[in-house]
Amino acid sequence: MKERIEYLRQQLSIHNYKYYVLAEPSISDYEFDQLLEELTKLEKENPQYFDLNSPTLKVGGAINKNFENFTHLYPMLSLGNTYSEDELKDFDDRIFKQLGHRDYEYICELKFDGLSISLHYENGILARAVTRGDGTKGDVVTDNVKTIKALNTKLIGEYLETLEVRGEIFMHRHAFDRLNQQRELEGESLFANPRNVASGTLKLQNSMDVAKRPLDIYLYHLIENKETIKTHFDSLTAMKNWGLKISEHSKKCNSIEAVFEFIKYWGKEKQHLSYDIDGVVIKINNYNQREELGFTAKSPRWAMAYKFKTEDACTKLLSIDYQVGRTGSITPVANLQPVLLLGTTVKRASLHNANEIERLDIRTGDFVYVEKGGEIIPKITGVNMEKRDQNLLPNTYITHCPECHTALVRADGEANHYCPNEDECPPQVVGKIQHFIFRKAMDISGLGEETIQLLYAQGLIKNIADLYDLKFDDVIRLERMAEKSAQNLIDGIKTSVDIPYQRVLFGLGIRYVGETVAKKLAAKFKTIELLKNATYEDLLSVDEIGVRIALSIVQYFKNQNHIDLIQRLKIAGLQFVNTAKELVLDSSMLAGKSVVISGIFSKYSRDEIKQMVEINGGKNASGITSKTDFVIVGENMGPAKLEKAIQLKISVLNEDDFLQMIGK
Ligand code: IVH
Predict the structure, then answer these.
(1) Phi and psi (nearest 5°) for 279?
(2) Selecting from 3.10.250.10, 3.30.470.30, 3.30.420.40, 3.40.720.10, what CATH number does the domain 81-307 have?
C-alpha cells in the first residue's frame, strides 16, 4: 500500500512537471484525475502515510490543476488615469461642478505596482481570494494567497459578518533580487520585474512553491452592505482594526493643491520605498459623495490614478551581442546609440531571449524605444516602425556559441538557448570557478572574481581542481599581486579543503543544485559515490527533488570529465563524505517546519513530543513568531500565546492531531 501511495505521488509530480513546466503532457487530463482520485482515496484510508508534501493536500501543498472561476459580486473596475497635472485639475473641476460645492476631501494613496485581489471574509475567516481576471470573473487562488505572511486569514476585533476587501499583492524589490540571484545560481532564466513574479506566483499550481516566494499585500478598498462606515478613511481604520494590512502612507488632502504636494513628494520619495509604485491614487473620502458622483462604464467618477511618467527615449539599435552565462545560457544584449535617460547615458539593454527579439521584431538599424521603469536596467519596449528602413532584415538568432563556436541547443519549452560545451567554453569555465569560490560554497578568502579571470587568462587554471595545484610562484607573477596577498590566496585555498561536503557539492555547480538542494542531497547520500550511483528514481524519492533536478544530477555524473575532476579534488583533500552527526529520522514530513509546543499533554510528555518533532525532521522553537509553522497545544496553554498564534494565522494542533499527522 505504502509503495502504491508513493508511486502515485511520484507519478503525479512527474505529470505535473510535464504538464505545467514542459507543456508536454504525456497523459490525458482524465488519466491524471484518475491517479489523483486514487491517491486521495488511499490517503484517506491510510492516514498513517500522511505526508505534508503530498500533491493532494489543500493548504500549503495544493495543486490547483485548473483554477476555479468566480464571478465578482461587484465588478473589479479599473481607474481613470492620467500623467498630467492639468488633467487632474480637470478631474477636480468636474467633481466641484457635479457636487456643487468645495466641501469634499480626497484620500491620496500610493498606487502599488502589483496585481489586484479580492478577499471574501465570512464570519471573520478568509473564505475566498479571487484575482481580478477580466474584471467580471477571476480565478480563485485562496490557497496561494493564504501563504502571504502579512495577510490575516482570521479577522480580529469586531468585524462584520460578511465583507469583501480588495487590495494589491506585490513583491518587495529585495525579495525579487534574492529570487533572481538564486535563479541565476541555479542556472534558471531571470524574472523581468517584481510585478511579473507576483502575478506568475499567484498562478503557480502548488502553494508550497508560492510560499517560497515571499509576497506582500496592502488592502485599500472595503465593500460592505451594512453601510455602517461612512468614509474611506474610516474604512481604512476599520480594516486596520480587523488585523488587515493597510498602507501607512495614505493621506487626507483638502484641496487639489494638497494632492499635487502629495504627488510631488512621492515622485521623489518612491525610490526609498522597498517596493515599486507606479503612481498615486486619488479618491473622494465621503461615501455619500461617492454615490452622488457615480460611475462611468469602466471606472468610478470619484477616483483617479495619477501615473508617474516612465521616461523613455528613442535611439538606434547598433548591434546585438550574445552573452554566455556560467551555466551556458545565452542572453542577447542590445548595443544602442548612447542616449540620455533620467540623468544616465544608456548604451546597452537586455533583450532576454530569442522570443523577446521575435516578439518585438527588432532589427539591427531600427529605432527603438528604451524605457526606465521601476527597474535599474533599461528595457526596450518597442520599435518605431515609421522610422524603419525597409531594407532592414529580420534578426537571425545565432546558432553557435559566440565564445567557443559550439552549436547551441534549446530544450523544448525553454526560452533560452544554451551552449553545451560546459567544460571548455571560456565564460562557462570562469563562471564555474567563480561560483566554486563563492561565499556560500568554498568561501576562499583572498581569492576574488577578478583574480579568477586573471588566473584563467594566464592559463594557470582551467577548472576548479587546478586551484589546488596553484603555487605561490604562479600567483605572485599576476598583475598587481603583492607578496602578502599571494600568500593569503594560497593559504585560503589550502584551508578550504576542510569545507564540509554539502558546500563542496554546491560549489561543483551542478545545474539546478542550489544551496538547499545540496544540503538535502548530502543528508541523503552521505558520500559522493552514493550520489554518483543514485538512480533517477532514488533521487526523485528525496524530499523536494523533482524531475528537473534529478535529471540534471544523473546527467552530470555521466560526464567522465566530471568524474575525473572530483577524483582530483579528492586527492587534494576536499570533503566528499558527510560526517555531520545526524538524528536517525523516522520521516522528513516535518522537514523545514518550525514547531512550538505549549501546555501539558496527556499521552506523552513534552520532551517526548519534542523528540517526535525532531525525528520527523522538524525543529522545536521556543516562541511563536511569523516563522512558526504550527503550534502543538496541550492543556493550560497561555491565552496570550494562543491569541498570538491566531493573529499570525498559524495552525494550532492538539496532541491527537499531531499524533495522527506523524502516523502514531
Ligand atoms: S483603488 C474602484 N487603490 O490600480 C477602485 N487601486 O487601474 C479600486 N491599485 O486595478 C481600485 N494601488 O490594481 C486602488 N491604492 C490603490 C491602488 C490601486 C494600486 C491598482 C489596482 C487597480 C488599478 C487601477
Answers:
(1) 165, -155
(2) 3.30.470.30
Q: Which cell goes with 80?
A: 481613470
Mean pLDDT, to the nearest integer, of 630-643? 79
Give the C-alpha separation, 422 to 481, whole Å. 29
Query: Which residue shows C-alpha cell 474611506?
Result: 232
Q: Is 362 in the pocket of ligand 1 (CB under 6 A)?
A: no
Question: Ligand 1 in contact with 106 (CB < 6 A)?
Answer: no
C-alpha 198 – ligand 1 centre gap (Å): 16
With beta carbons less than 8 A apart as the criterion, state whether 263 and 280 touch.
yes
C-alpha cell at 482: 603583492
Is the beta carbon of 109 within 6 A of some atom in ligand 1? yes
Ligand 1 center to 580 CA (angstroms): 52
Residue nearest to atom 23 of ligand 1 (CA): 78
78 lines ligand 1 (CB under 6 A): yes
For 84, counting Cβ atoms within 10 Å of its Cβ (0-12 exposed, 13-18 middle, 19+ buried), the class is exposed
**Residue 597 near residue 526, CB atoms below 8 Å:** no
Q: Which residue's CA is minimally distant from atom 10 of ligand 1?
A: 78
Tell the residue nearest (CA) to atom 13 of ligand 1.
Answer: 116
* Contacts of residue 569, Cβ cutoff 8 Å, sequence gap at least 6: 464, 465, 468, 504, 576
Catalytic residue among 2, 18, 41, 111: 111
Kindly write down the DSSP assignment for every residue of 194-239, as one continuous string.
Answer: HHHHHHHHHT-SBHHHHHTS--EEEEEEEE-SS----BHHHHHHHH
pLDDT at 337 over 90: yes
Cβ of 278 below 6 Å from ligand 1 = no
Pairing of β 303-307 and β 277-284 = antiparallel
Per-residue pLDDT, 452: 95
Task: For residue range 216-257, list pLDDT tens digits in order.
Answer: 999 999 998 778 899 999 999 999 999 899 999 999 999 999
Is residue 452 in contact with ligand 1, taking CB distance under 6 Å?
Answer: no
Best CATH choice for the domain 426-498 from the list 1.10.150.20, 3.90.180.10, 2.60.40.420, 3.90.1700.10: 1.10.150.20
Cβ atoms within 10 Å, residue 203: 15
* Distance of CA 295 from the midpoint of ligand 1 (Å): 15
Domain 2-59, CATH homologous superfamily name and number: Helix hairpin bin (1.10.287.610)
Say whether 41 is catalytic.
no
Q: Do you know the residue count of the chain?
A: 664
Atom of ligand 1 nearest to the CA of 303: 5
Residues contacting residue 544 through CB under 8 Å, at least 6 positions apart = 53, 516, 517, 520, 591
Ligand 1: which atom is nearest the Cα of residue 78?
A: 7
> Are 426-498 and 501-572 the same fold in CATH?
yes
- Whole-angstrom Cα distance, residue 369 to residue 46? 60
Contacts of 538 by beta carbon, 8 Å cutoff, 6+ apart? none
Using pLDDT thresholds of 50, 70 and 90, give the confidence band for residue 22.
very low
Ligand 1 proximity of 168 Cβ (cutoff 6 Å): yes
Which of 73, 76, 112, 298 maximizes ligand 1 atoms within 8 Å of its Cβ, making it the mutation to test the pocket?
Answer: 112
CA of 213 to the centre of ligand 1 (A): 23
Q: Whose CA is nearest to atom 18 of ligand 1?
A: 111
Whether residue 583 has pLDDT greater than 70: no
CA-based nearest residue to 333, from 398, 390, 279, 393:
398
